Amino acid sequence: MQLTLRQIEAFLTVANLRSFTAAGASLHITQSAVSNLIKDLEAQVGVPLFDRTSRFVSLSPDGREMYTLAQKAFHEFLLMEKYAADLSSLRAGRVRVVGAPLIACTLLPLLLAHFKRAQPAIRVELVDQPMALVQSSIQQGDAEVGFGPARLPETDIIARHFFTTPVSMLSRPDHPLAGRHSTWSEVKKVPVVAVGRESVGYIAADVGTQPPFTIGHVVNQMPTAFALAAAGCGVALAGRFSLMLARGYGLVATLLHDPVLYREMQMYLPAARKLSDAAATFVDFATQFVKDHDPNTLDSATVAELAPPLCTRRDS
What are the HTH lysR-type domain coordinates in residue numbering (predicted)? Predict the structure, then answer.
């Protein structure tokens, strides 16, 4: 059985207007064309859908049962048709974004809020994942755009520069190394709260493995590291843009020297498939946003100033 949309539309129109002639006029086809569509439909379902008299047409008992299902199916098709048209014209769409934990809870919410204000018809969904899963989320089609620290691109992934951030020490203001010309050799002597042991390994590869870092705690999430630093249990190491979050714990950022380290944050995109128009619009917006607003200089006043008006949900 292969019902057609045209048959369903004719069935609903005849049922609503109770006339083959009126249905033909409404659909801009002849009365005989409507009759043929209904006859073919009844032949496929195997039961009469209308009781016909010389004066009017009414639904049969089977027709009344089919009417509800046909009405719902036709409505869903119209919604799908509208959605497809909206996607092509950028009046609507959806972009799924995946971010490594730190950037997902600092810069990305501000970026998404500004994008929503600029493109209110495009829905952006943000999910945070461990950095090890950011690229695979794009490979599997769970996200179209990803953000995180620089890593070698995996299969079918393009890595694009997003912004650069200096690695800083996040600590309480009263920490002995805070607010002065502090060096890596000095930081190695104080307890470090590591977010994953590999994070310190990446830094040690650039500043030297000897003497080793003093690891005070190893945690999985940056907010935990910041909370421990705020309690005086050590210092955290992260890009300076993380101060957007760390400031809420009462922490300050101190640039470390000998050498000054920089980390590249990247945007990850699919190489094997074309971005949707909505995703391409988001990528262009994100690229321009970090050019206009350096993530490393966003203090509390600037973040408050940049924050769009409170988003409220309007019931439909």
Answer: 3-60
CB atoms within 10 A of CB 76: 10
What's the angle, vertex CA 151, arms to CA 122 and CA 300, rounded to 5?
Answer: 55
Rounded Cα distance between 268 and 157, Å, is 7
Strand pairing partners for 168? 238, 255
Number of H helices, E strands in the chain: 13, 12
Instruction: Give start and end residues of each alpha helix (H) in the chain.
Output: 5-17, 20-27, 31-45, 61-89, 101-104, 107-118, 131-139, 184-187, 197-207, 222-230, 243-246, 277-292, 300-306
- Find the length of the chain: 316
Same domain, yes or no, for 153 and 268?
yes
* Predicted structure pTM score: 0.68
Q: Which domain holds residue 26?
A: 5-89
- The low-confidence residues of the chain, meaning pLDDT below 50, are 314-316
* Cβ–Cβ < 8 Å for 235, 187: yes
